[in-house]
């Protein structure tokens, strides 16, 4: 028996589609051990974070998106503005890959991605993803909480924001980076409170496999309660700062794509409604939920800020 708080996006295991059956079986075994451990500690929220297995806390209210859809219909403007970026993205070398951690930290550092991954506890989470363009998917990410990286980075108490940056032309001259209209490099950011929320995640894999380039390999942010453009791909730099980051899409059009970008069905994009979303794979249309259904975890971050943080 699970002794934990039922989260508002959860539905029965039967909602999962057949292609997830293999992962589910593995996750249930890992989950059973983790739940026993959680009970022994008398705690809620059984965690499987020590083993490379699924964290049973994060379940879905809908079928998992077919892998073929989630890995072939992508937004990655560095490789062009079409949804078909697979062949262009696959040309990018994923190793060596260096990550810079700097800004308001005890000690700035540059480290190889594999050295970082060795230090991080990898787990799998089922998350929903809602693009501002009104399509959505539900996929199993592998990775680790952003909070773990924040602890590893040892930010100074003066740091109030985290800024994450995608590679620029110096790292890899992706074709889209030649397009001068865009404010490259792609930068995203969040407050320290958001970055250390339990849902904020850094992904390294998808469907039990290493992340593919088109999905943001080797390291991409995953923020399931915000519009997808906040989930910056192929990260090369993480900086701690006391100034709100000037984010890529907000530089282009802050009214349509602001800093907060919390999913809100009640606030339409100037050119389309956000009330519903189209599920990749099935094309089924379903209602969109406030904070993409993750309000129980994140609504508290925006107390007193609702006017701003729920608008865009
Ligand atoms: N560097 C970079 N990160 C990015 C984007 C991008 O164009 N460049 N697109 C964003 C948008 S709009 C979405 S919806 C998601 C898409 O992630 P996916 O292709 O893995 O579904 O990536 C986000 N991260
Ligand atoms: Mo998006």
From TrEMBL:
Oxidoreductase molybdopterin-binding domain segment(s): 95-249
Post-translational modification remark: Predicted to be exported by the Tat system. The position of the signal peptide cleavage has not been experimentally proven.
Annotated catalysed reactions: L-methionyl-[protein] + a quinone + H2O = L-methionyl-(R)-S-oxide-[protein] + a quinol; L-methionyl-[protein] + a quinone + H2O = L-methionyl-(S)-S-oxide-[protein] + a quinol
Enzyme Commission number: 1.8.5.-
Pfam family, one: Oxidored_molyb
GO molecular function annotations of the record: metal ion binding; molybdopterin cofactor binding; oxidoreductase activity, acting on a sulfur group of donors, quinone or similar compound as acceptor
Record carries keyword Signal: yes
Residue positions binding Mo-molybdopterin: 74, 77-78, 131, 166, 215, 220, 231-233
InterPro entries: MsrP, OxRdtase_Mopterin-bd_dom, OxRdtase_Mopterin-bd_sf, TAT_signal
GO BP annotations listed: protein repair
Alphabetical UniProt keywords: Metal-binding, Molybdenum, Oxidoreductase, Signal
Cofactor note: Binds 1 Mo-molybdopterin (Mo-MPT) cofactor per subunit.
Cofactor(s) in the UniProt record: Mo-molybdopterin
Subunit (UniProt): Heterodimer of a catalytic subunit (MsrP) and a heme-binding subunit (MsrQ).
Record function comment: Part of the MsrPQ system that repairs oxidized periplasmic proteins containing methionine sulfoxide residues (Met-O), using respiratory chain electrons. Thus protects these proteins from oxidative-stress damage caused by reactive species of oxygen and chlorine generated by the host defense mechanisms. MsrPQ is essential for the maintenance of envelope integrity under bleach stress, rescuing a wide series of structurally unrelated periplasmic proteins from methionine oxidation.
Family: Belongs to the MsrP family.
Entry protein name: Protein-methionine-sulfoxide reductase catalytic subunit MsrP
Natural source organism: Nitrospirillum amazonense
């Amino acid at each position: 028996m699970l002794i934990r708080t039922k989260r508002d996006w959860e539905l029965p295991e039967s909602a999962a589609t057949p292609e997830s059956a293999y992962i589910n079986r593995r996750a249930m075994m890992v989950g059973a051990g983790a739940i026993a451990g959680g009970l022994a500690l008398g705690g809620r929220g059984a965690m499987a974070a020590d083993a490379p297995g699924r964290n049973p806390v994060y379940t879905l209210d809908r079928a998992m998106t077919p892998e073929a859809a989630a890995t072939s219909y992508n937004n990655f403007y560095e490789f062009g503005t079409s949804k078909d970026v697979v062949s262009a993205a696959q040309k990018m070398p994923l190793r060596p890959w260096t990550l810079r951690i700097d800004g308001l930290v005890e000690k700035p550092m540059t480290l190889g991605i594999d050295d970082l991954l060795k230090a991080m506890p990898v787990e799998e989470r089922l998350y929903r993803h809602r693009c501002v363009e009104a399509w959505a998917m539900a996929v199993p990410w592998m990775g680790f909480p952003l909070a773990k990286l924040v602890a590893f980075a040892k930010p100074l108490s003066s740091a109030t924001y985290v800024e994450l940056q995608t590679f620029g032309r110096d790292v890899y001259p992706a074709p889209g980076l030649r397009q001068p209209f865009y404010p490259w490099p792609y930068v995203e950011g969040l407050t320290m409170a958001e970055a250390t929320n339990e849902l904020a995640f850094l992904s390294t894999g998808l469907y039990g496999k290493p992340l593919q380039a088109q999905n943001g390999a080797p390291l991409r942010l995953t923020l399931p309660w915000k519009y997808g453009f906040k989930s910056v791909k192929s990260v090369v730099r993480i900086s701690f700062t006391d100034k709100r980051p000037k984010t890529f899409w907000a530089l282009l059009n802050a009214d349509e794509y602001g800093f907060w970008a919390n999913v809100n069905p009640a606030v339409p994009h100037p050119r389309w409604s956000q009330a519903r979303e189209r599920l990749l794979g099935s094309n089924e249309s379903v209602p969109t939920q406030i904070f993409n259904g993750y309000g129980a975890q994140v609504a508290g971050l925006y107390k007193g800020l609702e006017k701003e943080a729920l608008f865009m």
